[in-house]
Design brief:
By secondary structure, this protein is of the alpha+beta class. It has one domain. It has 1 helix and 4 strands; from the N terminus they run E-E-E-E-H. A 4-stranded antiparallel sheet has the order 1-2-3-4. The protein is elongated, with a radius of gyration of 15 Å. The relative contact order is 0.16.
């Protein structure tokens, strides 16, 4: 296990021909995981799992705001 950000636990597990990388945010109790190439650097795998964790946390926050009525639900993406 390794810490790369405050309150985030990152774990690497070699599983056969791949590496499973899990990230757990302690405060929000959010956990995500990715499967990566074991030949990839640890830094790249960490960056990828942290990017996914941030995405999931933002998505969850947006959903919570929409449910509370503070943010209006919209369709599509404005470009």
């Amino acid at each position: 296990m390794s810490n790369s950000a405050p309150g985030v636990i990152i774990e690497f597990a070699q599983v056969g021909a791949y590496v499973k990388v899990s990230a757990f945010h302690e405060e929000s109790m959010t956990e995500v995981s990715i499967v990566g190439d074991p030949r990839e650097t640890e830094a790249v795998l960490k960056a990828t799992v942290l990017k996914k964790l941030l995405f999931v946390m933002r998505k969850s926050e947006k959903k919570t705001l929409e449910e509370s009525g503070k943010v209006k639900k919209q369709r599509g993406i404005i470009v």
